Amino acid sequence: MSAQLLEVVDVAKTFDGAHRPVKAIERVGFTVAEDEFVSVVGPSGCGKTTLLRCIAGLAPPTTGCTLLRGVPVTEPPPELAVVFQDYARSLFPWLTVRGNILLPLRRRRDIPGKERTAAEAIEAVGLAGFADHYPWQLSGGMQQRVAIARALAYRPRVLLMDEPFASVDAQTRADLEDLVLEVRRRFRMTVLLVTHDIDEAVYMSDRVVVLSRPPSVVKEELTVGLPADRHQITTKELREFARLRTAVYVAIKGQEAPSPQATAATAGG
Amino acid sequence: MNGRRLRHLWLEIGVTAGLLTAAWLYLAGDRGYAWTSVPTMLGAFRDAWLFDKFGEHVVPSLVRLGLGFTLAVAAGVALGVLVGSSRTIRLLSQPIISFLRSLPAVSLLPLSLVLFGIGTAQKVFIIAFVCCWPIVLNVADGIAELDATMLASARSYRVRGLDRLRWVLIPAIMPRIFAGMRISLSMAVLLLVTSEMVASANGIGFFVWQSQLTFSIPDMWAGIILLGLLGYGLNLGLQVVERRVCRWHTHLTGRDE
């Protein structure tokens, strides 16, 4: 077991509601080891995005903290990159693909050859030839590839992804899942993925953290015992995949596995 | 250019030409002291502006307008960013800004004359002072309404300080800056001409006023036509620049064809 890279320590978050405080996260703690791929899943509205914002240093938790290599995260650290769900708003439309990727590198003295780094990232996400395009000239899937390239060029220790494939169609989603698995291996990155998609979480991860309904707590942590090389068809045909998927589903819904008919009906979601 | 736009363009040119011809014919008869025939106007226009009095009157006017408007934009953006960045500043400054921008533009003419005399400084001051408020308000709104995801994205990649201002905030509010500039530009021309009529020794406004006083009605018309063309050209120029600079915005809001 390698060292813990990221430690989420008893993070809680309460918002000031209109009438009374709203507790979004009760108490969430888990760890992510070096080179690990961890997914956080939970029912919709369970504060996944809030949790990710707290981990990224974009919002302060009410109590608790995140430790990156043992150091508390109080603002976004340079070792951490975020891919947001809404690519149309996380990319800057007035900058080209290259410009979007270079902007975060401007003050990075530790990354020599920025143009080369950017070109390499663009190539890694399969967008060679689109460096001088503007984001709005690209499809949704391609825009999210730009966002991923921007994160890659930033050379983070940890890549945080907030429902990164929720806004693209199903086939693009599968392509992007595989792309992330590939670049993660190539760039040796640790990934923390927040998603509501059970299949996606099981397919991509080494470990799945299941959150409860709000106020959220960690309901269950499951280790994914699938072979390291994942494949959209063969991996998802494995018995272990089905078992894990059911286990996550049960943990989220808080009930026993439904009858086969009901399973078939919900499998698409 | 597609067929529909081409038809529109022809229609535009046709209607304009028709109206001009009508005016031409109407003014060919004797229409009284204030009027003069179109050929006489054009003759006066050529004599005055190509390029006999160009240096004497047009250049000073353009310099005043350019300086005043540039200052208005610079101050407007700076103040707007400041006001928009903080809810407290916005609330506290709101009454003052509302008052200042509600002042009828020319009501500050006497004050500006007392402060700066009748030279270029007075024109630059009054243009800059009056024209900055529409920009301040637009920019402040733009800053306050910046997209949260966009800001989070900039923050998570540690784009801060001047980089953030130069590469994120200013581009994001550029459409708002132009919205303010469109309002301000016509005000700037108005203030320039008024100032030059009231207190100046040169400039296009001075020329129009002086021509009227010395009964040279064709010259007066030459000045009026030049001012019209100037305003038209400046607006057109601003639109062209805006379309280039804010191409992404035009695209995202689907205003292009």
Describe this structure in words.
The complex is a heterodimer of chains A (269) and B (257). Chain A folds into 2 domains: 179 residues, 3-Layer(aba) Sandwich (Rossmann fold); 70 residues, no CATH class. Chain A has a 10-stranded mixed sheet, with helices on both faces. In chain A, helix 4 crosses helix 5. Chain A has 10 helices and 10 strands. In chain A, a hairpin with a 6-residue loop joins strand 1 and strand 2. Chain A starts with a strand and ends with a helix. The longest helix of chain A is centred in the middle third of the chain and has 17 residues. With 257 residues, chain B is mainly α. In chain B, 82% of the residues lie in helices and 0% in strands. Chain B contains 11 helices and no strands. The longest helix of chain B is centred in the last third of the chain and has 38 residues. Chain B is globular, with a radius of gyration of 22 Å. In chain B, 33% of the residues are buried. Classes of the chains: A alpha/beta (269), B mainly alpha (257). The interface between A and B is medium-sized, with 27 and 20 residues.
